[in-house]
Design a protein that fits this description.
alpha+beta, Metal Transport, Frataxin, Chain A, 3-stranded antiparallel beta sheet, 3 helices, 14% strand, globular
Length: 79
């Protein structure tokens, strides 16, 4: 598991990180404050909600690892 903390990451941090990682982010789909993240090929999707806590952040982190990103690359994008 990651050596850095995932406790204080906000939706805007994830959106910025996903953009840096080359993923497509759509914030203006429908009503609400969720953001939709897609891989460039359009196959896999991830919905980032606005109210986050450590457990949800860990799930997002693990999903990005499943998509092939390394821990170091994800943390660098989150900085």
């Amino acid at each position: 598991m990651p050596s850095e903390s995932l406790a204080d990451i906000k939706q805007a941090d994830w959106i910025r990180a996903c953009t840096k990682l080359g993923l497509r982010v759509e914030k203006n789909r429908g009503k609400g404050s969720h953001a939709l993240v897609k891989q460039p090929d359009g196959e896999a999707r991830l919905t980032i909600q606005s109210d986050l806590h450590k457990i949800i952040n860990q799930k997002y982190f693990k999903k990005l690892i499943q998509w092939g990103f390394t821990e170091e690359r994800i943390f660098e994008a989150l900085r």
